[in-house]
Amino acid sequence: MTTPLSAPLEISFDYTRSLGPVLSQFMTGLAQRTILGSRGADGRVYVPPAEYDPVTFSPPAELVPVGPEGTVVTWSWQPEPRDGQPLDHPFAWALIRLDGADSAMLHGVDAGTATAMHTGMRVRPRWAAVRTGHIRDIACFEPAGNEAAGPAAASPDAAVPEDKPDPVTMITTPVRLRYQHSVSAEESRYLRALKEGKVIGQRCPACGKVYVPPRGACPVDGVPTTTDVELPDTGIVTTFCVVNVPFQGQRVPSPYVAASVLLDGADIAFQHLILGCEPDAVRMGMRVRAVWKPPEEWGTTSENISHFEPTGERDAPYDSYAQHL
Amino acid sequence: MRDVAVIGFAEAPNVRRTHGTTNGVEMLVPIFRQVFDLTGLTRADIGFWCSGSSDYLAGRAFSFVSAVDAIGAFPPVMESHVEMDGAFALYEAWVKVLTGEADIALAYGFGKSSAGDLRRVLALQLDPYLLAPLWPDSVSIAALQARLGLDKGMWTERAMAEVAVRSRAAAISNPEAQLSGTVDADELLAAPFVADPLRAHDCAPVTDGAAVVIIAAADRARELCERPAWITGFEHRIDSGQLGARDLTGSASAASAGAAAGASGVELAELHAPFTHQELILREALGLGDSVRISPSGGVLAGNAMFAAGLARIGHAARQIISGSAGRTLGHATSGPALQQNLVCVMEAR
User: Fold this and answer.
1) What does pTM read for this prediction?
2) What is the pLDDT of residue A162?
């Protein structure tokens, strides 16, 4: 068996989140280089602040400034930082109990080498040059009293009085993940056949239905679909919609028609574009034919078929596709 | 309430990488066949299906819907999904059978961990305001926990290595294990750190896999299985999501779930401990003494299929009863960073 096709897939999204009253104060404080903790009903100070008291479950009565220095409670060494982490050279992760706090917060420590790290060491925050009210306003922590870290640790605008800031109420956190996305063995055969200008489906050995693209398992019977069936590139429109709304990434100017096309001999329709006629001429049961891109542009992709267009044949009777709606 | 028992279990090979899709169908179709052959059931006998998987692991939305192809869901079936380990899907299935909504239920979990960078993907299960934006990876967080115990003298690097030694030796008899063999602690301790203080042997290997468990109500269980594994306790608990606000050297949630489920007196426990020191924490929290056999399957240090491994622990623990080699066993599943969430299922022969 040949190896299934796979390709890199990168997905990204900027998550925006509202902060609520407690984290809003915390993040607003960070933008001002102040770290706030919450005092609980038991007198303990939680940093980061607890949105609800862990003992009484009521909102915290007060937020109090802590630190800025603190003590490393535990640490681990990150020899190969990964995307998005606080530092891009080797650093320590640490739980840090800030002065005046009873719980510890997680952050990175720029210690240079693992041998410079030890439990109980004193650290201080290194603030980001640009602060927006985000946990990343603390760029990282660094060993306290370490003059070698001096220039980066200095706070050039520390003496500048800051006006009472507008509260930060939202944060944005970009998330980007990379995958190697694989298609199934059956989909791979389908895509490789498309590269040769052919459309193949698969027949379920139990119910005899033909699925295109092939699915690997019959959704009715739950058995693997094994028999390939070559299908023509003609079929009918079972149902359709007229797209009038522009959207990001749109490649065909609207209005245009997206339709479910049932290839002749197939038992499941797939979605494709209907071009080559006015949108208002498209109708259920209309006979259509695939319009292929020039063969030199073919790859292992569904995009080899540019779109479908009307054949001009007589419409299929409703009963012939009613069960596929 | 009626009695419910585990009557069947199967798992896919725990491999470093499959060529299959992230929707799990290629791993699920063979193990569904195995578990139906084992129990003599067909899919028409299943009154409720529940799956555990993750879209972040798959890198696509609604990946579990494609997995439903593997179960043959037409005409429509009663089905549900949890974005958690399949063990939590089994919990939902157990409630469905307990309450009489179904007589026979099937839970499955699957995950293709190799599709992305698992250590980064798992950062997305953290608090999205304070932790996830720093992208702390799963191994680094576990390493923070390990050092706390080392500093306090609660365990040693050697004791951690001994957990790995036992796990790999036990896995020799598990044909679906990814890591197995005879190693000694000195050899393991000579290896460099992956994330000081953790070495490679301290961390479960990245694993693709899937697992399936079938449960049945009393009468059906007796008909279908000579020695059903009767569920006598099934509990789950969660700790704070803030890593610095709880004692990471213990597991309050595991202790609470274990006490409620009746963990004391089990002969054997299959523990979901993705890091060596976490097995030591769990033994303490669940009160498992030296006489209790720990993870004879090799546990997840021999193969940790995300979203399936916890369910597989319950399956392995049940199999020990079904096969007649144990009378009272425990399956454990964890989720979240540093053992944040814990589930305990206690089973016995009758």
Assistant:
1) 0.91
2) 55
Residue B110: enclosing H or E segment and its boundaries?
strand B104-112
Least Cα separation, residue A244 to chain B (angstroms) = 25
The residue whose two tokens read 């005046």 is A100
Phi and psi at residue B69, to the nearest 5°? -55, -35
> Smallest Cβ distance to A106: which of B72, B116, B243?
B243
Pairwise CB contact (< 8 Å): B128 & A173: yes
Q: Where are the domains of chain A?
A: 9-175, 184-231, 233-325
* A84: chain B residues, CB-CB within 8 Å: 120, 123, 134-135
Are the Cβ atoms of A3 and B19 closer than 8 angstroms?
A: yes
Confidence class for position A152, pLDDT limits 50, 70, 90: very low
A–B: how many Cβ contacts below 8 A?
176
Domain span including residue B12: 4-118+206-228
Contact A93 B196 (CB under 8 A): no
- Min distance B18 CA to chain A CA atoms (Å): 10
Q: What is the CATH number of the domain that holds B244?
A: 3.40.47.10
Q: Does the ipTM exceed 0.85?
A: yes
Between the alpha carbon of residue B130 and those of residues A85, A144, B123, B124, B125, the distances in Å are 13, 23, 11, 12, 12
CA distances for A39 relative to A135, B116, B245, angstroms: 20, 40, 13
Q: Least CA distance to A133: which residue of chain B?
A: B129
Distance from C-alpha of A47 to C-alpha of A106, rounded to nearest angstrom: 10
Give the dihedral of Cα atoms B285, B294, B14, A204; nearest 10 deg. Answer: -90
User: What's the structural domain count of chain B?
Assistant: 2
